[in-house]
Write the structure tokens for this entry.
Amino acid sequence: MLSTGFPYLDEIIKRDEIVEFYSLDEDLLRVFYHKVIAISAPVFVVVVSERGGLDPYLVRRFQNVFDNHSEVYVRRAFKVEDVPETIKAMGDNELVVIDPYHHRKDYDKILSALRRGKGRKFIFSFMDREREGSIFGLHTAHSVIKLVKGKRGFKFVIVKSVTTREIEIPNSIWELYGKAVDDGGLLRYL
Amino acid sequence: MGRTQPSYTRAVNEELERVERIISRLNSPILSSLLEEVKKKVRYVQSASYDEFVDPYDLVFFTLIWALAEECEKWKNMYLTHTQQKEE
Amino acid sequence: MEEYVLDAYPTKGGVKLLLSNFKEKFVKTTFPVYAITDNPEVVLQHPEVKYYEEEKWRTLEGKEVTLYRFEVESFNAYYYMRKRLNIVNEIPTVLSQTLYRLGIRPFATLSGEEGEKASYFPKITMARVVPLDWYGESLHGDTFEVEINGERKKFYGYPEVEADVVECLGKACDHVKAQVKVRMEKKRSPVSIKGLVEWSLISRTPLHEIAYATIGKALTTNEAWVAFKRKVLIPKVVPRVEKLRKLEDIMNADKGGLILFPQTGCFDNVYQVDFSSMYPSLIVKYNISAETVDSCDDITTELHSICLKEKGIVPEALEWLIKRKTELKKIDKERAEAIKWILVASFGYLGFRNSRFGKIEAYEMVTYFARKTLRKTMEIAEKMGLSTLHGIIDSLVVKGGNVDRFVEEVEKETGLKLDYKRFNWIIFTLTRENTPYPTRYIGNREGEIIAKGLIRENMPNIVKSFLEDSLNVLSSTRNCEEVRGSVRKIRELLEQYKRRSVNGEPSDYVIWVKGIPYVRGIKGFYKATLGFRGKDVDYYKRYLERAYEDLTKVIRC
């Protein structure tokens, strides 16, 4: 089951078919999706890039922290023509897709592949939505969340949501690594 | 060379650098000298664990234990020699 | 005497052949353009499309596809169609396919003297002409260095060079009379003009289509001919979907060759044992190709399976090239080197995202077998009483025991060919942090010094000379003790060079960085192309001292 590891966030996005996370801070986004993969296992992942994208040791470490040792299934797509076919090959499974717009082209083919499968999808994008494309692909059932690094932590900025208006949710960096404290949940931020 | 996972040697180097940064803030000469030993030995541990699935983080600390074990052995031998000499 | 075909160009209605001795010939022909389309009739509307024929081809996976082969009068029609249709089979190039069916082979004679054999090579004049400036090769110098059919000459003024095929740099191209000129600034491959002729010959591709190509294009063309002859269609792009795998399974496969960090220090009397063209040989031995991996279970491994029912396209292409390189090594080193480059690229290309005949699973199979092979070789070494000092991908350094019998046993067990060389001594060098470094060593191979990573391209010429002379000193040493003893001689060399740095030749001070020559002057670095404007002697003295320190640190092992 796809989960961000932050219950209040999961609650907000629970009805969204496609959730896109992006950040200008590459390291922050990278750590975040490794955690998402680890806690969402068993999970299917599509990694788009020629090199890198997934650090199996980091996934393993998160799996140890959260005590979830279920399988992570992966398919890699190296060139832009591989992306839509690889996404389609995953069928109706829930998917984590890492950097689908990596090649900065053929967006419509990729989007149509993303919308075709019936499963929910979490997309992690190294694209600055504000500069490179604020409106494409924003289907009605598609929300966009920005991760912003701050001095003492980071926050989720819900840029576009199916259910909520634009809000910001701050977190401490420790919560990313699993050392969260139950502090009243969502109500704190509304 | 791996296509997706980071170069093993580079991953190990990153762990080593992180430990080095921490040690540099502790001002402990024994830790610094141990770290030098670790740097020399870690490549051999890498070679030995090539076919295993070992987290670079674990590899560095395993090497540290090896360096410590050798240090202990060295002192043990010195002590034994010393006590032997005393008995003579 | 019959002329050789040096190059070919498409014109309206046919092909213009450039022949040796500055002759030309026109051959009337149409050009084949293959397309996948539902409506071939519409294409006939273009005035230069003469007719078409339906052909049955198959995809790499074996699915039948209907192709239409359009015969066109000129390349204008070809380019026109390219923009509007799904054109396939563009490698081998349309022009080389045209020549092939006319029975014309680049660098063979017109009557088609056999060009297949390694012993064959066209009897043409080839030259290399570069302008020289005070700092070395340049685009604009006033002196010229000419190498013609192996002989080198300097011209203090415009050279009078006439040859069939020439590679020239910058201004030199204006002062050379040649039927075919290759501009060196545009070259994207490391082969000489003779190497390019060899590439043109083996890939049956006109020289101008391959002169500025990458090694990848030469490789893919060779593979494509195998596919073409089997009527396997060659598309522009092959979208791939990787096999679904667990993350840990990908990690097990996602490795390179085996690397064993070497023991540090100096070792006497060792042997370096190398597998000849290991990766290409593994590709051939295990029939590794995109269409053979995971298509049936004749060979099963922990990673993937391989099908042996049909010879793979890549193995077939490489087998011929491996044989050719082996034969060429005895005849012509330059040509053998040109083939070597293609072989070296063949493995990487298997995993390259744009490769037509490779896929990541195939790439993984090669590294898998490479690691297994090297491990097995090390086990055999241990069993036979040899100790392994270093191992890296396709090469081992061993000591002790009977090396001849060891090599024989390994060849028997692995089915691959080996080569070995004796070293009087070898020193594995350390990194700055004093950790072992697998690809850096200095060794004395029966009088010849091999020093990996010691003399770097971007060192000043004077430092390079110093290091070369120092290595010369080492070439007469027979063991580690003598090596250590030679530090004094090298110290003397250092003093000599330091004196020279005060008043050396201007070219001594040149440093090449990314193809651009610089000199360190009193006010900093300046481009040598602006003319010699003095040097910062202290900088060069310090560089020499650092080089001396680095070298002697290694020697003192």
